Amino acid sequence: MKLLPLLTGHSSSRAAVTCTYRCGDACFHEVPNTSANPTFADVLTEVSRRGALKAGAVVALATGGLAATTAPALAEPEQGKPKPPPGLDFERVEPNTLDAVVVPDGYEQGIVIRWGDPVLPGAPAWDITRQTGDAQAKQFGYNCDFAALLPFDHAGLAALLVTNHEYTTETHMFPGYDENNPTEEQVKVAWAAHGLTVVLVTRSPWSGQYRPKPSRFNRRITLHTPFQVTGPAAGSDLLKTSADPTGTVVLGTMNNCAGGVTPWGTILSGEENVNQYFANADLVADEQTRKRLARYGIKGTGTVRKWERFDSRFDLTKQVNEANRFGWVIELDPHDPESTPVKHTHLGRFKHECANIRIVADGRVVAYSGDDERFEYIYKFVSNGKVKKGDSTHARRHNMTLLDDGTLYVGRFTGDSPAAEIDGTGKLPSDGEFDGSGEWIPLAAGNRSFVDGMTAEEVYVFTREAADKVGATKMDRPEDIQAHPKTGRIYCALSNNVERGNPGKEGATEPNPRLNNKHGQVLEFEEAGGDALALKFSWRLFLVCGDPAAPDTYFAGFPKDQVSPISSPDNVAFDRHGNLWISTDSAGALGINDGLYGVPLDGKQRGNLKLFLTVPKGAETCGPIVGDKVVTVCVQHPGELDGASADNPVSHWPDGGASVPRPSVVAVWKPGRHGLSDIGG
Ligand code: FEO
Ligand code: CA
Ligand code: CA
Predict the structure, then answer these.
(1) Which atom of ligand 1 lies nearest, measured to the CA of 353?
(2) For residue range 216-266, what is the model confidence (pLDDT) as tens digits?
(3) Collapsing DSSP states into helix, strand and coil, what is residue 448?
(4) CA–centroid distance, residue 561 to ligand 2 (Å)
(5) Dist. CA 159–CA 198, nearest whole Å
(6) Structural domain boundaries, residue 559
(7) Inter-residue contact 453 to 444 (CB < 8 Å)
(8) Which of 241, 401, 469, 588 could form a disulfide with 13, with the two C-beta atoms 3.0–4.6 Å apart?
(9) Among the atoms of ligand 1, which is closest to the Cα of residue 273?
């Protein structure tokens, strides 16, 4: 097998335009985490002293059933092709650079909804030359990321499709766009193209082709939708502005990346790279405030989109607290179109990729969330209240308060191999795995802070700073994180971190074992005793991503000549058979388009990663929902390559011809009649 061609030159494998508009050029700025947490060597010494905290000891606490499934089964070499496990019976797609969605032989595909398609009554037909803020507020937003399909009938033929619209790429949205002088109308379009969409979709039993339908449940959430702030930081002085002296009502949400469906049928969504929208941090007089802004990557003067020219709340010299009102996990009840969405402060403020819920045996809930930036942390929240069963509005109202009362923790991950064996190349240590143990360190519970020198309110609003102080583990961009619905094991995509090992930056650690980490890794961990409330856990790297022919990659011990190449894991999902699905954001680091992969987690084929679909050039694969015969994904930022624009599109997906590319939701299905178990949700 040949090494795949590697892209060179650009320090991120994404196009520069994506870096600018999606993350505010996060990769080109100084890493905001300059804290001096304990080094890996310090932690290792401590662990050696305590001895008993070795991963094995923690795993040994696990219940019989879980323990039996947690030890990674090394694949036995087999003659010929192994039989595909249930749910993964498709011919793998070859990596490619096509301007198309490529699916396995025997599958069909169709567009569910595109940027600009009507969502609300009165939405005008999309016309890129005549977009207005009012039109966009009734149409499907830009750059769909997370997606959920909430069942709406008993036959599985109707669902509420909920998607995030992470960010706008103005140079691709407006012909003749002048980056130095955006018009007020263009800015209004951008405000309306952010947020979320709720839209009813239906399909026939013979096809996975969902189509949007008018419905009273259809809804757009934008930068102007009121949100109720909930949890212990609601009403804090740190959240008050002149427009909201109560610190409890925020207009809008933005940069919503991934999310989660709660067991009670609402949507969680993470506000991620919100730093890029706020201007003039460098002009804020108070030094402590400037430092706190910088810890969130909020620096400089003017912003790329220049919203501060049209709404003073984006100018920190006028409303210094407005930035504190973003960076939260929001919750939306799509079943009640009149409901006010909330921002849950108890889950802390950082660059939330997502949040996902697990219900504990006693009815309490646990939420996991990652802070997606280089050298940031993984968090866990445990509720005090218990879930109310049923799908009544009353139950949902109660359950929507569960994330407002509990304890917030941050993760510390410790390796079990000698530091000298973690040499930064990705070479496996002598015990055969990157693995170890870990613990959850409490940050705050209600009005009680566990962090010296910080009030509880400060812990919630400046959570990164609190996590620095307690010695959390700096990870390689924690993205989507979800507990497996059957085993309870937790999977976290760690996207990449090309800064690891650079001068002044932390070097290799066992959970983040590669310097200049271009391709990322997938972390697997389980709470001690299989108990989601436990404060200790064991962990291992399930995948160390990249070109399987490269020596620094690892696929859970499965023979590497049989797996698909993968770079920059981003979203994770599970199918009903228990397989893990991973979508990627930056496979350009391997010279290939992004895609969606399926992989068994147990048995002889654990680690046999298979590429299921790829998205058009310049695009990212997001929001996978995986059924046996119907799979949907969001195709985000198609054609977003350097040099491209609305005047010079390099992708013409999905409309073809000379059209501009449009971010869209795509359905992929196997022909035939589809039962309930065949669709994801
Ligand atoms: Fe928006 Fe973490 O990707
Ligand atoms: Ca080890
Ligand atoms: Ca993401």
Answers:
(1) 2
(2) 999 999 999 999 999 999 999 999 999 999 999 999 999 999 999 999 999
(3) strand
(4) 24
(5) 10
(6) 84-274+326-669
(7) no
(8) 588
(9) 1
* Helical residues (DSSP H) of 515-625, grouped into ranges: none
How much is the pLDDT for 19? 87
- Does residue 122 fall inside a structural domain? yes
At 226, the amino acid letter reads P
- 295, part of any domain: no
Cβ–Cβ < 8 Å for 608, 82: yes
479 lines ligand 1 (CB under 6 A): yes
pLDDT tens, position by position, 558-603: 999 999 999 999 999 999 999 999 999 999 999 999 999 999 999 9
Q: What is the DSSP string of 464-504?
A: HHHHHHTTPPPEE-EEEEEE-TTT--EEEEE--BTTTTSTT
Residues with CB under 5 A from ligand 3 (ion): 257, 570
User: For residues 9, 649, 119 and 325, what is the CA-based torsion angle, rounded to 10 degrees?
Assistant: 30
User: Is the CB of 371 inside a 6 Å radius of any atom of ligand 1?
Assistant: no
Output the CA 528–ligand 2 centroid distance in Å. 18
Name the residue among 295, 285, 293 with its Cα closest to residue 317: 285
Tokens of 88: 């993964």
- SS3 label, residue 634: strand
Residues 6+ apart with CB under 8 A from 325: 229, 239, 241, 244, 250, 343
Span from the CA of 86 to the centroid of ligand 1 (angstroms): 30
Specify the pLDDT at position 29.
78
30 within 8 A of 24, measured Cβ to Cβ: no
Ligand 2: centre distance to CA 426 (Å): 12
Q: Measured in angstroms, how far is the CA atom of residue 378 from the centroid of ligand 2?
A: 20
Q: How many domains does the chain have?
A: 1
**What integer best gives the mean pLDDT of the chain?**
92
Q: Is 271 in the pocket of ligand 1 (CB under 6 A)?
A: no
Helix residue ranges, H only, 144-196: 170-173, 184-193
Secondary structure string (H, E, C) spanning 313-374: HHECCCCCCHHHHCCCEEEECCCCCCCCCEEEHHHCCCCECCCEEEECCCCEEEEEEEECCE
CATH number of 463's domain: 2.120.10.30
Q: Is 680 contained in some domain?
A: no
**Residue 431: which region, alpha, beta or left (left: phi > 0; alpha: psi -120 to 50)?**
alpha
Q: What is the pLDDT of residues 364-389, one digit of tens each?
A: 999 999 999 999 999 999 999 999 99
DSSP notation for 49-95: HH-TTSHHHHHHTS-HHHHHHHS--PPPP-SSPPPPPTT--SPPPPP
Q: How far apart are CA 436 and CA 43, in angstroms?
A: 12
Ligand 1, atom nearest to 272 Cα? 1
**Is 56 domain-assigned?**
no
Distance 595 CA to ligand 2 centre (A): 30
* Ligand nearest, relative to CA of residue 44: 2
Closest CA to 266 of 406, 396, 398, 153: 396
Closest among 621, 623, 624, 631 to 670, alpha carbons compared: 631
- Give the number of C-alpha atoms closer than 13 A to the C-alpha of residue 97, restricted to the C-beta side: 10
**pLDDT > 70: what percent of the chain?**
91
**For residue 171, which phi and psi values (nearest 5 degrees)?**
-65, -20
What is the layout of strands, in order, in the sheet containing 664-669? 108-114, 664-669, 630-636, 620-626
Q: Which of the ligands is closest to the CA of residue 621?
A: 3
Tell me which residue has its CA closest to atom 3 in ligand 1: 257
311 lines ligand 1 (CB under 6 A): no
Contact 397, 424 (CB under 8 A): no
- Residue 415 in contact with residue 379, Cβ under 8 Å? no
Which atom of ligand 1 is nearest to 22's Cα?
Answer: 1
